[in-house]
Amino acid sequence: MTVMSQPVMAAARRPMSGTDASAHGSTGNGPAVGGVVLLSGGLGGAQLAPALARALGPVSLTVIVNVGDDLDWHGLRVCPDLDTVLYALGGHLDRERGWGRTGDTFTVTNALGVLGEAAWFGIGDRDLATHLVRSDLLKAGRSLTEVTMDLARRLGVRRPAVLPASDEPCPTVLELGDGRRIGFQEWYVGMGAVPAVRDVVFGTGAAAPAALDALDGAAAVVFGPSNPLTSIGTILALDGMAEAAAAVPRRIAVSPTVSAVGSPDGTITHHALARRQLLAASGQTDSPSGVATHYGCRHPGLVDLYLIDERDADEAADVANAGLRPVLAPLLDAAGLAASLTELLR
Fold it and tell me: Considering the chain, what percentage of its residues have pLDDT values greater than 70?
């Protein structure tokens, strides 16, 4: 990890005095006490969360996950980002696809298509079991937070804690260039993220009490390498969430994109296309500095340190101009990125 050569940035690696440590919730020698919160979407957060939990060691990590992508599908409540994070932490994630459970089959989804039912949202047969259990527990009156903690236990996730950003449905709606308003998944999956987007309308509602409690007691919050609009933005749009995050002593964001790598492949290509479309709708570019500008304009003063890939050092000045302090780190190496984040928390 390289901290850019600005006097204010040098403090990010310098051991703090006792007075500073007390003010920032750090012991000065180890990661910040009081715990770390990771705000996460699906793939990016799912890749980082296991590595960050290992790097932090005994320091508690809580992952607060976007629920704006959730949908009701053939009578079942589906939470794609929550499931991706849980599967990754429990060792069940199909990493080649970037979603769903490893070794899954799609007999039920294919049969739905044969019967003339909607089948554009592919749910694997093992994945289906998760949605059946979740839906039954929700119908029994349990909150999404309680259900997620139960599912984590059943999937073998001991740590970190995984929490939904809200216990209420708060769907993200996209206004397309032709004026249609549709749910995020219909655009992202059903339409392949191809149609131009005019506006992103965040769902509104209360943040989950457990999520707010986690932020209230945290020494640091990390805005994960997820879409800044439809993953992180949807979390911050919930009542009280942005204020709770702003009150955390250390606030670090990770760029979800690496410009120097060029065109990605497979699932990453789909994510990149969607991010490019959505950032364009908000007047920004899909680049490390474009995302930094988004944070600086949409959430001024919220993000302090901003991690960009070592190969994107030429964008550091633009990041600084957006009001965020740039830090170089190996973004495409989950273990290296986690180590860089942990060092910044010392």
Answer: 88
